[in-house]
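Would you mind giving me a polypeptide sequence along with per-residue structure tokens?
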Amino acid sequence: MTVLVEIQDRIALVTLDRPDKLNALNFATIDRLLDLLDAFEVDDRIGAVILTGAGDRAFSAGADIAEFAVSVRAGSAVALRDFVRRGQSLTARLEAFPKPVIAAVNGLAFGGGCEITEAVHLAVASERALFAKPEIQLGMVPTFGGTQRLPRLAGRKRALELLLTGDPFTPEHALELGLVNQVVPHGELLPSARHLATRILRHEPSAIAGAIAAVTRGLNASIAEGLQIEAEQFARLAPTRTLADGLAGWLARKEISASRSATCHPAG
């Protein structure tokens, strides 16, 4: 198995399990991740996903270059079919997944590992993490969405510096760029990712999915189109019992608070 799964407290912990290959993304690993996401989407036991790497060295060092090289030698059409479209399908699936996906970046996140971090909804990085866009060193461009998502996160000029130099960058710089949400001590990585997931899972799944959908689709639209997407997500949630209960609960709490305030400060 190239991927391990552990489900606890409505969180699926998914571990890339090729530590001897720095958790490189071969075709089998990508296919397994896509299959798992299909299963997780319809599994009510799972409300969030944490993705991390096995071992202490790498989250994922990127694509399995030996396997990729075979596809390239077979010609552009084969490489596009077997490698590019497969990788882009994975990052697109992660980006649009209706349940929150959190990367727990425990080490190297190069190439495809960095692109996964760009695509997921949230990311926590260990202080030992290291990021890079090294594809330029092979004479190619990123192919799992890195030329598109990193500029949207970091801005055009900052992204191009990383894409054109291939130089590694620290987790602190990744935080500054908006690539990760937190940088934490290595031993606190998974607990921090779990805590973040738990804070999200306090809320209604349909509202979580609606927020993810509105943001993901809206980023690629004009502001007017984005506002329409937002309105559509609200319209989908407005008739639900969950929203009615949420509003009723809020009003009841406000009434109780007002009553206590009047008791503490009587007129006279």
Notes: The chain has a mean pLDDT of 93. Residues 241-264 form the longest helix (24 residues). Strands lie at 3-8, 11-16, 48-53, 58-60, 101-105, 108-110, 122-126, 130-132, 182-184. Residues 69 and 165 are 22 Å apart (CA to CA).
